[in-house]
Amino acid sequence: MPERRVWARRPFNYDGVELDRGQIFELRGRPNDERLIKLGFFAELGSKEGRDQDTFPCSTCGAKFMDELQRRAHGDKWHPVVPRSPQEQERFEDREMDIMERIAPLNVGQEPVVIG
Question: What is the pTM of this model?
Answer without folding.
Answer: 0.71
